[in-house]
Amino acid sequence: MEKKDIDQLLENIQKSTPEKDFQSIEEFKKKFFEKVDALPEQNSVPRRRRWVLWGFALSSAACFLIVGMGILGDHITMMFNSLGAGSSACLAPAMLESRSSASLHSSASAARANASDRYVSACHGTARTVRFTKHRFAKERIPVPRQQTVFNTEEYKSVTENVFLRSSENPLSTFGADVDTASYNNVRGMINRNQLPPRDAVRIEEFINAFRYNYPAPAKGEKFGVTFESAPAPWNKDHKLLLIGVQAKEYSPAELPPANYVLLVDNSGSMYGEMPIVIEALSCMIDQMRPCDRLSLVTYSGNVKVLLDGISGKNKDVAKAAVRKLTAGGATNGSGGIREAYALGRKHFIKKGNNRIILVTDGDFNVGVSSESELVEMVEKERSSFIYLSAFGVGSGNYKDNKLKMLANKGNGNYFYLDSLREARTAAKKCFTGSMFTLARDVKFQIEFNPAQVKGYRLLGYELRKLAARDFNDDTKDSGEIGVGHQVTALYEVIPATSTSKALGSVDALKYQSRVSKDSQEILTCKLRYQDPASHVPSQLRVYTLKSYPDSGNNFLWASAAAEFAMLLKNSPDRGNASFDAVLKRAKRAMDSDEDGKRAEFITLVHKAKDLKENPQDVSPAPRAPSSAW
Which CATH architecture has domain 255-421? Predict the structure, then answer.
């Protein structure tokens, strides 16, 4: 029997015999010898050579069946040791191929591949499909055990960081106030789950504004006080870092106007795991209500339901009982819920009061109006009625940060993220002690830099709040809101006129512009414009001049540490010599009293992020903690 006849015989067996018949070596041998006996006798082939060829075919079949059963590694080695030298040499390529294919299904080790394949054999009871070729066999696609796959469909607004600008060409920097803290809380949750955040999830200004600073109170009769601090930029000694801090006036709860709150709760299926946090946050809000306040409760999933319709703050037990019954399931008709919430807000509107919708959701709208642009357009039409919309974000994996950020921005509200029961309680208490009682709306800042003293500058963060210079004096242009007791902190990285920094690049001298500079020693002029929160009277303007670079203190140390941490997480192109160790050093110096423990928590977070950056292979993502835990 010639070798070509053996090859042809193997191909015929494969084509004519169903896969299910190849279940054991004995069955293969039986069919093989049936075919051989049917062939004409080839006397020219020595008997010894025929047995060698038969041995080759049988060893090939045995190898295939053993691999098909998922028994790799030592089993294959033992089998090959028992074969003749000739057949072993022929099968070596096949062995390497099978090992290479198995490694594709597991990046851990051959042992894990063996265990996985044995799991397939045990659970599915199917043999591997084999294609015989000359001299060796090749495996078809191998089934792997069905494993739970976690899909991350979170969405974040794409942001391009502010770049350095020449003050001689762009002396004005204009932006709207932003007191949101959602980005920091969301990133905190990711790092605590051993995950580094995507860069667009990190907003520098929200890291800075996530903490309280020791700013002086406004002067008598003023709503705002402004303070300045500066020092060399920690990550670039050729630059200066300038802090502008704004402190809003404080009021006691008894001095605050009555509130008309509409709680708009997403109770769709995607909110199932977040309901304990939602219930805790809403219950804490209700506990803070006063008899003069009104409360409505609207839920939306596939349908929109009104559970409470403007009840008095005296009926806290009724409100909390309705909240405790909340369950999750179904689709997400967010647009229908928003429309109903605004209708209830208008129905129970309190003139000169705090009329506000509080949206609690993961942002996943999938019924009705669902795109970011359509939702924003809907909210923009309603904000002129002085009913503001704030957002409480929850959840992970399916979180739509981009939609909630823009809804809160365009709804003249605040944006929080609840990553734990502790944060739910903290945020809820803040709402009813001032932060969601608007002190001023459409608050805008415009900084004019003196080219004689400042060669260039860049604003850290606030990319989503940037305004054109002409928008500053236009009262129809929307901007951010500041609540009672709020603080706004902005950082500018400044290139002094005497600096040799190359951050601005090279630009040819202008031909048609005047190059005469003033002799003024002033660094900049800061202008602040704001409107009354419940009327359309013209805006008010306040002007503050910085005549020289001021000294720095703990406010500067902490704000610069928070900003540097954010730049490291974003891999900012302007992070210079930033490092986690530098962040930790300044943060530890600026701990202060730390009454709420957030600064100590920040230091722990920086340590975790440093470990994740430096040793990513040593840390696997941790499951999200149950919402009942702190």
Answer: 3-Layer(aba) Sandwich (3.40)
CA distance 219 to 80: 89
**Count of CA atoms in the C-beta half-sphere (13 A) of 183:** 31
User: Could you tell me the CA-to-CA distances from 4 to 7, 61, 123, 133, 235 in Å, in that order?
Assistant: 5, 17, 39, 12, 74
Confidence label for 70 from pLDDT (cuts 50, 70 and 90): very low
Domains 165-251+439-498+520-616 and 255-421 share a fold: no
Structure tokens at 525: 């002029």
Closest CA to 537 of 440, 457, 456, 395: 440
**pLDDT at 71 (0 to 100):** 42
| Nearest-angstrom CA–CA distance, 148 and 167 | 55
* Closest C-alpha to 275, from 326, 229, 233: 326
Question: What pLDDT shows up at residue 324?
Answer: 95
Residue 222 gets the label, from left (phi > 0), alpha (psi -120 to 50) or beta, of beta
Q: Note the CATH architecture for domain 165-251+439-498+520-616.
A: Sandwich (2.60)
**Domain residue ranges of the chain, discontinuous segments joined by +:** 3-139, 165-251+439-498+520-616, 255-421
**Of the candidates 478, 605, 626, which has an alpha carbon nearest to the alpha carbon of residue 184?**
605
Greater confidence, 148 or 314?
A: 314
pLDDT tens, 172-198? 999 999 999 999 999 999 999 999 999
One-letter-per-residue 3-state SS of 325-391: CCCCCCCCCHHHHHHHHHHHHHHCCCCCCEEEEEEEECCCCCCCCCCHHHHHHHHHHHHHHCCEEEE
**What is the pLDDT at residue 26?**
58
Which tens digits make up the pLDDT trace of 162-171? 999 999 999 9
Identity of the amino acid at 586: R
- Of all residues in the chain, what percent carry a pLDDT higher than 90? 57
Phi, psi of 329 (to 5 degrees): 165, 145
User: What letter would DSSP give residue 438?
Assistant: E
Angle at 531 between CA 529 and CA 533, to 5 degrees: 145
Task: Please name the residue ranges forming H helices in 195-333.
Answer: 204-208, 275-287, 316-324
What pLDDT is recorded for position 96?
A: 37
- What are the residue ranges of helices labelled H in 571-630? 580-589, 598-614
In this predicted structure, what is the pLDDT of residue 592? 83
For helices 182-192 and 401-410, what crossing angle results, to 10°? 160
Confidence check: pLDDT of 1 > 70 = no
- Please choose, from the candidates 325, 341, 201, the residue with its C-alpha nearest in 3D space to the C-alpha of residue 264: 341
Residue with tokens 């691999």: 67
Dihedral over Cα of 467, 469, 475, 481: its sign: positive
CB 354 within 8 A of CB 258: yes
